[in-house]
Structures are given as structure tokens and as C-alpha cells.
Amino acid sequence: MVRLLLINGPNLNRLGKREPHIYGSDTLQDLEQQLTSFATEYEAELTCFQSNHEGEIIDQIHAAEGMYDGIVLNAGAFTHYSYAIRDAIASVNVPVVEVHISNIHAREPFRHVSVIAPVTVGQIVGLGFTGYRLAILALLEKVKGREKTWKK
Predict the structure, then answer these.
(1) CA-to-CA distance for 117 and 108, rounded, in angstroms?
(2) Which pathway is this protein engaged in (predicted)?
């Protein structure tokens, strides 16, 4: 069975309350339940983790090597300035797909740059919760060797 890790970063615990016009009204718990069921349909096991603390996210990325076949990561605001998370991703041999609920490229200028994108296998933005499902599908393709052109 394919094992995937979902990491949600800062403020994603506020889903459903924080700026619902941007992020929707579903909660983090709703998201995790939906994605766990979705992964199960594809014979994958999904472990969910959320933290507002950079070091905890880094620890999860490090621990993923040898435990998980892929990581779905919404690093929240850390996306735009955390070279530490970027370096953690680069240091492990686990493919990571970056996900954002909103289209970061259509928002404030400081959100347009992702420092983690260069070390991920792909980035999905602006598709709401659907982006997470697409990331799961992409990682399943990667793990099963169906996508030979991916870098990591």
C-alpha cells in the first residue's frame, strides 16, 4: 500500500473561519476526512499533520524518508520565505507536491514567489480542496513509475 503524508502549515487550522471568501467554509477536519477517504479509494494510506511551527514541519519532512512514498505539502506563508523548509525537502528522497487552496499568483505580490517550488515535483494552486486530490493522484502516478519525467 502506498503511504502518503499530508502536511498543512500555519493558519490552515483556521480553515472555515479564516477568510472564507478565499479559503471556503470547510474546516481542516473536513479536508482531512475527505482526503483520507479519497486516498483509501486509491488503496493509499494518508497520514495528516498540521502545524503552525516551522521546526515541526521540518521534523515531519525529515521523518518521512523511509516511512512515506510521497508528501502533499501546503506550507502556507512559509512557502514564500522558509529556506529551512526548502532545504528539508531537498534533503530527503521523498517526492513532494506543493499545494495551495488559493491561486497565490493572483494574490498579493509577496505571495507570487515560492522558495520551495524548485525542490518539489510540482505545484498545484487555486483549485481549492480539489488541488489536494490532484496532488494525491500525481504522487500515486509518480510512485507507481508512470511518470518518468519527474525530477525527484
Answers:
(1) 18
(2) Metabolic intermediate biosynthesis; chorismate biosynthesis; chorismate from D-erythrose 4-phosphate and phosphoenolpyruvate: step 3/7
Could you list the residues known to form a binding site, using ranges: 74, 80, 87, 101-102, 111
Q: Do 136 and 72 touch, CB atoms closer than 8 A?
A: yes
Q: Which residue ranges make up the annotated binding site for substrate?
A: 74, 80, 87, 101-102, 111
- Residue from 152, 146, 149, 31 nearest 99 by CA: 31
Tell me which amino acid residue 66 is.
Answer: G
User: Which residue numbers are catalytic?
Assistant: 23, 100
Residue 149 has pLDDT above 80, yes or no: no
- Domains in the chain (CATH in brackets) are 2-108+117-143 (3.40.50.9100)
